[in-house]
Amino acid sequence: MTAAWSHGVYTCVLFSIFPQAWLESHSRALGLFIDGKFVRSADRQTCNVTDSSGGPVCSTVCAVDEDASLSVSSGASGFKAWSALPCHLRAKTLLRLVSSLQRHGQCLSELCDLAQSPSSPSALVRLLQYYSGWAQLRDSLIPDWTPRGVVVVVVSDDCSLYSLMLKVLPALAMGNAVVAIPGVGTAPPVLLLAQLFVEAGLPAGVLNVVTGSVLSLGSKVAQNPHVSYVTYSGNKKDGEILCRATAGMGVPVSLSLSLGATCPFIIFESADIDSAVDGVIETAFKKNREWMLCVQESVWDSVVARLKVRMAGMKSVPLLAEGDRRLVDAAVQEAQQQGATLIQPCPPSSSGAAYPPTVLCGVAPSCTCVVTPSPGPLLPLLSFRSHGEGVTLGNHSPHGQAASIWTEDLTLALEAAKSLSVGAVWVNSHSVMDPSLPISGHKESGNCIDGGKEGLFQFLRPSSSPPLPRSSPASVDYSKFGTAASAAIIPEGSNSSSTPRSYLQYVGGKQCKSESGSSVCVLAPGGGTVLAHCPDGGRKDVRNAVEAAIKVQPGWMKKSPVARAQSLFSLAETLELKRRDMAVSLHSQTGLSLEKADMEVELSIAQLCDWAARCDKEKGGVPVRIYVFCHQQSLSTSGGQTSVPQSVVGVVLPDSSPLLSMVSLLAAAVAMGNAVIMVPSPKYPLPALEFIQVLQSSDLPGGVVSIITGGRDQLTQALANHSVIKAIWYWGSMEGCQFLQHTCASPLKSLWLHCQEKDGGRDWAQPHASLQEEMWRQAVQWKSVWIPTA
């Protein structure tokens, strides 16, 4: 492998005027960018990059295993140098790149256009400026957190340069090294940016770019033990494949699935109809975003009439691929068969790679074009009667990326924004972006937060927490995981008088037996003696707990922070009253001395009080932070962000500190407005079962917390396969972690995984501020709301 010619500053100035010159200097055959220079081997296969007319732009190298290994090794060396620099020196390097990007913005823009990956240089400059500031302020504003190490950023072929840099820049700003794996069209501008980074003073190896098949490369690079984190942006199908391919490697993987997601565009009767229709035309057809238009019945005729006028004379839109025409024709035919009528500026040609903008009026919410949008310029149009029905229709989509709502009623706008299960809401506007506010995918739109301060934490870990241990995938039969019967089952009908105490589990605010009617033995420390019998819960018990949770969680979430705090203080007071019984239970179950058991109870009470106190403070009070941004045509937009609960969280508890760990995780989840389904340690379940009396004596609504005992694998499998559960916090085996990574790729869940065999266990008795912050961030999602102010 040989190094390609490295260009000087004067030559790059010429490239800012003539982007073709940069391509010609590489003979239109771009190499990989590893260790601060272009490298290319003659025996590598190549991939052609074409322009919009199908003409050749350049070729890129298809990296192989050797290239992937070199890029990560270079990244590991670069990380040592980059992370050791003071914050102000990292910030100075990024600021130098701001100046370089401003000089060469024209070159970058034209290169993006050539490669069919349009991107705004001014948006990238703003991105760089924002994260340069965070590079400067990391240690002062985010203390007790440290960079992860080598981060892999993967984007699909249809993803933009901005989406890739929205992950690369914060990773660099926090002190990580990055291996970027861009899509075909994004590769040329990313390689140019990598060169500009090095010329701005970025140490060699801190940013490496490898090109080729993104999915194959992503999994190959993730296998390297030096990789600490993998994050992906793009379409859902490729994201699922990558997630499953990396399952069991011991590396966290996050997904931002913005492409292919359907976003609701809701027009209420109180809207400025002309402005709303203008917004529809611009965003649905000119920018090729995937939208469904929801219109209140009272203004349906007005909207349809204006759409017909505005669409008259519009030209057909080029399709991205040859096979797209067949998919578009099939979607239109299905909609018409279900009773939809069409609005088109002209009839579609019998064949060809273009299709006229088309509104499908009166489609059903279950229609394929609504749930799974086609690749062409199709806009489903649905109707609703009341304001509540409009919000329900907006939440019908399995995706939760963004929504646009149109109304002159500010109260209605804020209520609708609060109720929509999406990561961003634009009021009387659309597609407004700024890096200072988070982009959080809800539902099937991702489990990752990009942008804002909140988006930085995916590239950090608590300083008091060691790096996650790496592993190799185990041989796991995913179809049979968790199906084996629990050990030491006591059949229903056994003589209770001759056996130790039998406990009940806690579902929907009531104590009950398991649906199976069976129990398992709970052994004393050292084994041999049976202390008690606890229910052997399973899939039906999880189903019952979820049904109870979804009934009560919306009301619990809407309670004021003060009310949630009072409920947690009530739990703490009740636990204090039962302190002696809990300490004795801990002593008999774990073998701890009574003194240490009493200390664990004391720390559990303190945790409840701590999270109760947080409820009405900054983190628990879910504040809306307001920013004002100025955009084109002097339009000012206020943007606010707020944290919202995950909804229903499944928690598989660790063996260590069985009471303290349960109370800490329960309090963090419940304080933020979640409902939780808790699976106690099979080894030490009694403290959790004794805690049921505390729950029953408190004023916590029944169903907010359920406790189900049984086999860890069986209950983990039931949690993973329930579509309503949005997040799983897991302490268990390496095989369990691998199963969850593979299974929870679809339906997508937020995962917080801990392998007890590898990480040695968390010290629950030492509540470091960063560990508390980590628990809180796992309990919430983020939502941004944009409102024009002028």
Automatic annotation (TrEMBL):
Q: Which UniProt keywords apply?
A: Signal
Q: Where is the Aldehyde dehydrogenase domain?
A: 40-461, 515-755
Give the GO molecular function terms.
Answer: oxidoreductase activity, acting on the aldehyde or oxo group of donors, NAD or NADP as acceptor
Q: Signal peptide span per the entry?
A: 1-23
UniProt entry tagged with the keyword Signal:
yes
- The answer to whether keyword Signal applies is yes
* Gene3D superfamilies assigned: Aldehyde Dehydrogenase, Chain A, domain 1, Aldehyde Dehydrogenase, Chain A, domain 2
Q: Know the name of this protein?
A: Aldehyde dehydrogenase 16 family, member A1
Q: Which organism is it from?
A: Oncorhynchus mykiss
